[in-house]
Queue: 2 jobs
Job 1
Amino acid sequence: MAYSDKVIDHYNNPRNIGSFKKEDEDVGTGIVGAPECGDVMKLQIKVEQDTIVDAKFKTFGCGSAIASSSLATEWLKGKTVEEAGEIKNTDIVQELNLPPVKIHCSVLAEDAIKAALNDYKKKADAETRTETTTASAGA
Amino acid sequence: MARSMCWHCQSEMSGEYFCGRCVKVQPLSKELDYFTCMNLPRLLHVDEQALERTFYALSRTFHPDYFATKDESQQRISLGNTALLNAAYRMLKDPIQRAEYLIRLEAGSAKDIRTSPPADLFDEILELQDDLEEFRALSAEDSSARRQTLQEKLEASRRSLEARKADVESRLFDQFDKWDVLHAQTHDDPATQAAKDAVLKTMQALLSNRTYVTNVVNDLVAAVGERTGSGRT
């Protein structure tokens, strides 16, 4: 079974490899793993006014896992946090033409997106709370 | 494992693998689990000699060579039974595969057991990948200090991860003991069942952990393993 051209392209020229500082307030980080194959995926988003302005990933795994996360970062850029939550693994399967045995790679990418979004939302909520507290304390 | 009726003469089955009346070989049921197939209790410490003995004995019983002159149905059964035996033997012989198989049997699917991912391990793995990538990019002839530093760092990581793998395996084998004790107890007791589920869950987490570690170790060995000469410590 051969990989599709799109998978090979993303594998050979991965987009957005790298990382942001995990601690930054405007960064959401998702680290997930697939216990069946041992792949590990880190996906990060940078958010400005509810819009994802940049995304980066680092994946330790097979070609399909790398391609799935590379594609995911491309798709994430420019989307709002809410829109990003709507990305489904089936979209990735379709775009990359993944064979049935590699579908779990796309699931991993979806999980990573969700984890990154949750991490960002958690930080944002915490910050809003702090601001409110500070504001009321100041008043 | 006796079947109720012979596929050929329809008579009540009296023999175990062959019909008592028409002496035709009988297919092993597809639903047969590997432990039952090998006449073993569902324990994680397997009597390896007993496993091997049963495997050889049954292999002789069903070997396709003995059915070369028989009709096509019997040849097919001999082949199918032999394939099942081979799969069962391979699965049960290896302790890791055996544990994975038992979890599947007992929990339906390993996926039904949710375990929390080892976050600290993930961070370590991803950090290591950076070093590995940089190391791979430098050619073997490169004698720079940077390459030397990286190589030493990767070798140290390999040693520590190999130790971690050994530790995970030893904790896994502790769970083997627990399982075997629990398995000997009554089945209906809800407390026993809860304890068994806990063991299955712990084993699943350890096995996942082991998969992650094994993958990185293999990568590290491929990158720095053979080149060091001294190899394992």
Note: The interface with chain A takes residues 110, 115, 117-119, 122-123, 125-126, 129, 204, 207-208, 211-212, 214-216 of chain B (CB under 8 Å).
Job 2
Amino acid sequence: MSWEMFTRGATLALALAAGIAATPAYSQTTLRIGLAEDPDVLDPTLARTFVGRIVFAGLCDKLFDLDEKLAIVPQLATGYEWGGDNKSLIIKIRPGVTFHDGEKLDAAAVKFNLERHKTMAGSNRRTELTPVTSIDVVDPLTVKLNLSAPFSPLLAVLTDRSGMMVSPKASQEAGDKFGAKPICSGPFKFVERVAQDRIVLEKHAGYWDAKNIHFDRIVYLPIVDATVRLANLKSGQLDFIERLAPSDVPGLRSDNRIKVSKIVEIGYQGITINVGKSDMAKGNPLGKDAKVREAFELSLDRDGIVAVAMDGQADPGNQWVAPTNAWYAKNAPLPKRDVNKAKALLREAGVTNPSFTLMTPTTSDAQRIAQVVQVMAKEAGFDVKIQSTEFATSLNLADKGQYEAYLLAWSGRADPDGNVQQFFTCNAPNNYAGFCTKEMDALIEESRTKLDAKERLAAYEKIAAIASKEKPVVYLFHRHWLWAYNTKVSGLRTVPDGMVRVQGLKFN
Amino acid sequence: MFNYLVQRIGTIIPTLFFVSILIFGLQQLLPGDPALILSGEDRDENVIAYLREKFHLDEPLPMRYLYWMGNVLQGDLGESLRIQQPVLDLILQKLPVTLQLAAMAMVIALVIGITAGIVSAVTKDSVWDYAANVISLWGLSTPNFWLGIMMILFFSVWLGWLPASGYVSPFEDLKANLASMIMPAFVLGNAIAAVLMRHTRSAMLQVLNADYVRTARAKGLVERIVVLKHALRNALIPIITLGALEFGTLLSGSVLTEQVFSIPGFGKLIVDAVFNRDYAVVQGVVLVTATAYITLNLLADLAYFLVNPRLRG
């Protein structure tokens, strides 16, 4: 009897499994994008995660955008000019743009948004817009941003969340709950969000650039595990995935259903060294002596680290931007590995076998990088102890200066200022190294106030000269943003900020 | 029985009170400043100060507990620090998913586990017994993560029968819902089935040798009635306890399985919340699952009375 019941049950279960073949839950004009994480709050003023910016690329247009070469191009703006003494920026607004709720986007709306970024409690945009002292509405389609001093990174700042415009009416009504149902002016409007499951956007009928929008819906699905993300792409459940695992790239070369695109990131992976954040800096030769830091850098073979730890999917680098970036300071070139010189420097410093602890996040990538660094540095005489630490804890320890060296990645900003200012200025929140000199502060200030690209680059060359001598950060490489997508997807633009721009994207 | 019921319910309230203190207190032992992690990459000092004030992070621990408990008693579990949605909404979003997954996994586990356990005990030392033991060992020794990935590769990537991951509400599309849940439910049920099988087998073997079973057989009852009515009923008591505990564990979320299949249940919610130091979410979810666990244990105790008439006296 029991066997009979079991057989019946098993037959039923098999029939059920075979019968309920996968059915696509969304129509053909839906683009399904697999994200590596679940975004945070969908309010451009409060948002803080990289992955959230990918969703904003479909939801909220910005005053300016970036092109594939990182040049700044207009989006909601049609043009700009710097005002007298470069202490103001006049922006022309695109006519005929409406928010998802039908409200007009005009100069008053832009003023409202910039003021919201600057004054809203908990705003993450306030610091980015600090030099903007006031905003004037010149005419219905012109705003003037008054600055405390010339501020060259401002345009780049406006290509990110600070340049995103939300409906003033909707945001006033929703208050700090706006992120639960954001209303912007991008190509797609918000439909629903189920935390950790999906974010659904629907085509905005009144979009100003409608001819370049080819989908009715976009569904963003956070799938944390890279293998599972790829399995979803292979099985046709997703059309596009971001952050493909580097180790999966070779396996996809022979798959003619899937394409892979890669872009060198605008951020970096590096080892931040405690040179002055706390007393721990003085207790360790690495933190105390720049010669020891130079020896440590010379003991590393960046090509080897990239090949082993990243499966070749990164560009070796020694600055806050990649060697291919226009802002790379050529006076501080990428040093080659030289173990003999490293040993000689250690002898000069009087410490032939320095020992330090490298605090490392718990991700498998970070572990691999730390292990390769440990083995390479050992050849020069370094004893590197790896301390694998959960991210929130590691951040807290770094903030208190309770570390010697910290393997840390930065997602990067389009303007080099975003990769430099908050890491090297005295007491800046991300200055975990505790590096602080008047000379560096003055140079960073100079780089921010010069509008001429040549003059700015000259300032960055001086900054690079100091940074490569003092080495508060030993930069390792710049990751490749790896995207994998179904071959039916075309029109993809590979912009180094890693955002998936939906304008022009379509199915063949 | 009524007195027993009142007595058991009476213990729930102080238990939940101590659980709430434990949840709150233990969480504070986690290293890391929630305001720092929630302030994002830029770590704006104004934002950090704002977050500390908004979520009372600067106040003494007892005060924070009182704020939280006061709100909980009014039905407000707080707001997620990270995505700024009410914790109750998040729990209500995830609860049906977790319940469905737990129920499906439990049905699979009970059908396979109890059936295999009975067959194994009744046909002791036969081929069927060995086969059931091998299946049980397989279930116990197969990591959920591996089995999940293998099932995705086989059923989704190669055969294309089932979606690789994701969740569809049964109210939206029942077929798609079952298609998305069958693999994770099997992965979870597989491991529990193995445990249930081992316990059913040993409980049945013990009972089948008891005097009253011999008496039943001597009375000339058919073997089916002896096994299913007389033996199984007694053997079920430890299985019910075990089943309730396993179901309770399933309700607290199955982190790895949910991660592999991208099922938006309690497991993913709580793990993300712990890593992001999203205190309100962690506290809310643990409180709800602890309550469910305690309630399930109460129901298991009550179920003893139903299956074993001797306890009713």
Note: Chain B touches chain A through 70 residues (CB under 8 Å).
